[in-house]
Design a protein that fits this description.
With 333 residues, the chain is α/β, with parallel strands linked by helices. It has nine helices and 17 strands. The protein has a single domain, classed as Carbamate kinase. An eight-stranded mixed sheet has the order 4-9-3-2-12-16-17-15, with helices on both faces.
Amino acid sequence: MQSQIKKSSSTQLALNKHPDMDTIVVALGGNAILKPGENGTFAEQMENIRSTAAQLAGLISGGKRLIITHGNGPQVGRIFQQQELGLRAGLPEMPLYICGAMSQAQIGIMIQQALHNELVLADCPRTIVTLVCQTLVDPQSEAFSSPTKPIGSFYSEAEAQKAMAEKGETWIEDSGRGWRRVVPSPEPLGFPEIEAIKSLLAQEIVVVVSGGGGTPVARSSRGTLVGVDAVVEKDLVAQAVAQMTGAGTLLILTDVAGAKINYRTPGEELIGRVSLKEIKEYHRQGHFIPGSMGPKVLAAIRFVESGGNMAVITSLENALPGAEGKVGTVVVR
């Protein structure tokens, strides 16, 4: 990292002291865009997003203001593969953070169009905007000395060794399925575009932001921004956006009904409505898998702890009752 880059103290997250009960940050999981077993064609992704948009349109028709975040794993993985093919043809390679920005725009325009159409059909027109958003991180974070976030497709050991030797990347063997590149996953500190997000929200505009955790950047001592090759955990970014915009609810939509304790054991149990103190204890005990349910639960804890009214983890098809705290894992103070 360049020595002139430093952590910006002005972007630390503030407490959400007066949450707006009509504002919801919706964090869409990967199944909202691409389901297991699909090839990832445009038609498949668009149909999945259309179904997702129907759920979101129901929330907006019910009087809620939405900020939408989403994953980008499969899409940015395909961009990497396209780059590899391009390299063989002599085309220049783009940095990781630029590939992330590409995927933000790609997925954002699909959500934008699908949600617009669903709202027209519901006779509830709204303007929807995709904001390619940057996420401020601390380049001195320990995350940069110990990369942990797997990205992209699976490769052979020989291919991984070649990438490590030629590019200085870090690769690991992943669960017997092959080798994957791992990159740093630092904490989100803030967003250069946060005032734009707030302004759009105040005008009743639906904002799609921070796809895949946003484009990681660090701020220099002069205030300029420098892109950083990292991936910020998308659920923690959704929590930070919710906190900084004063949202009342953080709604994390995934492919399961909610968080569970004693997962994959005879004592497995779905967590319903739960106090902040109780869910923190479950998290401390290690009930939630890192990289899967773990970040979702941590995001819920942080949001409610910072003053948010309610955080809900539930399935996509339960978006409407989930936003009312009627289903899923509902974290309250």
